[in-house]
Amino acid sequence: MKRTLALSAALLSAVFGMQANAQTLSNATVAFLMPDQGSTRYEEHDYPGFAAQMKKLCPSCKVIYLNADGDATKQQQQFNSVIAQGAKAIVLDAVDTAAAAALVKRAQGQGIKVIAYDRPIPNAVADYYVSFDNEAIGRIIAKSLVDQLKKMKVPTGQSGVLQINGSPTDAAAGLIKKGIHAGLASGGYKTLAEYDTPEWAPSKAQQWASGQITRFGKQIVGVVAANDGTGGGAVAAFKAAGVNPVPPITGNDATIAGLQYIVAGLQYNTILKPSEIVAGAAADLAVALLKGEKPKASTTLYNTPSRLFVPTLITAENLKAEVIDKKLNGQPIVAAAVLCKGYEDACKKLGINP
């Protein structure tokens, strides 16, 4: 009799637990808070990918999307606002990853799940962290540049490279920076100057690069830029200075502008990391956490269970195969007609027909 009662109690507990999880998920509010407008990726890829996966997993859930425009104070206000609106899970790509620690702790103190997205939050243990491997990104783009300079038989000697990093308040930028240092270490090309770009602003990267062009001139044989926006700022600086050809410049994010610069020969590489993949994974995690599950982690970063996706290096040599020919959800990552608008002749040279 005691065993029967115990089994009955266990079954009832399981049933009530499932009902509670279902109630927690049904009509739940989930917030997706992004950091800035410096890259077009958040509106074009991240949010649509997150919203689409949430719709599949939880049609009755409400998704709130807000962008902080590079303002940490504004993001704090947005964070507080979604809590007031009843958010049960928050996906946070922090403007200031140090300041975000207090936000994570505040939310968790109210039983709200927090997923650190793209940028880790070193001073707080979020419920999960999901991103592409940022340190690997830095290492890959820098090593690729070094290999290209050697292929071009560029002498080391007095020549060197500029290094344009991301925002000093972004822990992911710090990881990319660490990777760049590692990628450049064995190349033999010295770093002439290095800059941390506030808010990842392309205009600030351009202004700094312009000063370095005046300072170092022909000694600059390449630029390691941490993303396509800062790389684009460097391209603009060289063009404004009348430098032709523009030396090899790296990037990251595979934005349409960055890919077009590669097609045009103005940028050497970028990193393809379809944001929809990480955004979809963030939605999976949010739903799992709301159900009371413990998603498996592939690694741990800053004591936080994490999943890091592997990025793909893109140059002119593989752009068509990786960006146009490969499909994501049945569609090319970038449509040829979109990529080649205004760059039709350059596209044809790469075998891309718009």
Automatic annotation (TrEMBL):
Gene Ontology CC: outer membrane-bounded periplasmic space
Keywords associated with the record: Signal
Pfam families assigned: Peripla_BP_4
SUPFAM superfamilies to which the protein is assigned, alphabetical: Periplasmic binding protein-like I
Superkingdom as given in the UniProt entry: Bacteria
Chief localization: other
Cross-referenced InterPro entries: Bact_Solute-Bind_Prot2, Peripla_BP_I, SBP_2_dom
Keyword Signal set for record: yes
Annotated localization: Cell envelope
Extent of the signal sequence: 1-22
Gene3D superfamilies per record: 3.40.50.2300
GO MF entries: carbohydrate binding
Residues of the Periplasmic binding protein domain: 30-294
This protein's name: L-arabinose-binding periplasmic protein AraF
Organism this protein belongs to: Deinococcus marmoris
Lineage, highest ranks first: Bacteria, Thermotogati, Deinococcota, Deinococci, Deinococcales
